[in-house]
Each structure stands twice: as C-alpha cells, then as structure tokens.
Design goal:
- The chain is α/β, with parallel strands linked by helices and about 140 residues long.
- It has a single domain, classed as Thiamin diphosphate (ThDP)-binding fold, Pyr/PP domains (Rossmann fold, 3-Layer(aba) Sandwich).
- Helix content is about 40%, strand content about 20%.
- Strand 3, helix 6 and strand 4 form a beta-alpha-beta unit.
C-alpha cells in the first residue's frame, strides 16, 4: 500500500494461516506495525497455526521516522519504541520465540522457526538508523 498499512500484516497472516492450515504462513513485519495488533499471536497460538512471524526490530516506527525527514519535521514524539521484548511477549502468548542479533544467527533461527509445529516468532534486531524510504517530489 502506497500510504502504508501499519498493523495489518500480523492479523492478515493469522487469517491466511486459518484459511490454509496445511501450509506454513510466514509474516514479515516491523516492530512498530506489530505493536498495533500483537494480540493476534495469542489467537494463532491457541489455534496451533503453522505460522512463522519475523519481527524486524529497529526500536521504533521506521517508516514514520523516514516520512518525518521528508516532511522536514524534527523530534516527532512517539516514534521510538525502545526496550520492547518480542520474545517475552510471544512466549507469554504461547509461542516459540527467539531473538537474532547477528546475521550468522538468522539462518538457524529461520530453519527452526519454519520447522516448528505451531507458531514461531523470530525477533531480528537491526540498526535504528533512519534510511530515506520516501523521496519528496518536486
């Protein structure tokens, strides 16, 4: 979606997994977007859905950070999400979960997550530096 869709990906993935129980569904989502609908993990765990969720954690709303740069707005409040532990959240909702901090850890974590019988969450820690995602036209 050109205008964004924060919060849509996780419940949409749960819906896909509900509709296709014989196939593993993979959800790739940012930490900010996940926070809009993190409770969808509970539903997926209760239904023992074949779902792997990869949370890319840059400690904030990266798309909104980038957009604020384009709009030349500084110090926008509420864009940082420091200290959220998606592994603990996922485990608390009944999911298998692991945190990845280096590129060497990613392949084994994905292999485990994709083979897990049920819901697995892989939290991938990335740099919180703000890339320019949107270019101002004109």
């Amino acid at each position: 979606m050109a205008s964004g869709g924060l919060g849509y990906g996780l419940p949409a993935a749960v819906g896909m997994a509900l509709g296709r129980p014989g196939c593993r569904t993979v959800c790739l989502i940012g930490d900010g977007s996940a926070m809009y609908s993190i409770q969808a993990l509970w539903t997926a765990a209760q239904r023992k859905l074949p779902l792997t969720v990869v949370v890319i954690n840059n400690s904030g709303y990266g798309a909104m950070r980038s957009f604020s740069q384009v709009m030349q707005v500084r110090n926008v409040p509420g864009l940082d999400l420091p200290g959220i532990d998606f592994v603990k959240i996922a485990e608390g909702m009944g999911c298998d979960a692991v945190r990845v901090g280096t590129s060497a850890e990613l392949a084994p974590a994905l292999e485990h997550g994709l083979a897990h019988d049920g819901v697995s969450v892989i939290e991938v820690m990335v740099d919180s530096a703000v890339p320019l995602l949107y270019a101002k036209k004109g």
